[in-house]
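Have a close read of the entry that follows and walk me through the local backbone shapes. See right below:
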Amino acid sequence: MSDEMKPCPQCESPYGYSLGTGIYACPECAHEWNPEEVTTDDSLTVIDANGNELADGDSVIVVKDLPVKGAPKPIKAGTKVKNIRLKEGDHNIDCKVDGFGAMALKSEFVKKA
């Protein structure tokens, strides 16, 4: 057993100890981890047209007319969209647009309200 202690990545307790198999355990929160694995930040960062960071539940305003397939008219610039949800991909905002229904938008065409 190694006498080296490592801080817990979950609760940040400084008392993480080795289990002898390359796995460490935290006595405070019972979290087990392998320090050899690269930890990546799983949080999704989405930036609007002005460089502001967006979050789930934010309201945004469309900054230019956006044509919609199958619709006779575009989403007009200045349309406010409430309660957005962020997701991975090219169209990284899921929302409901009044008059259009469920829609996926690109963050580069909206600004935070």
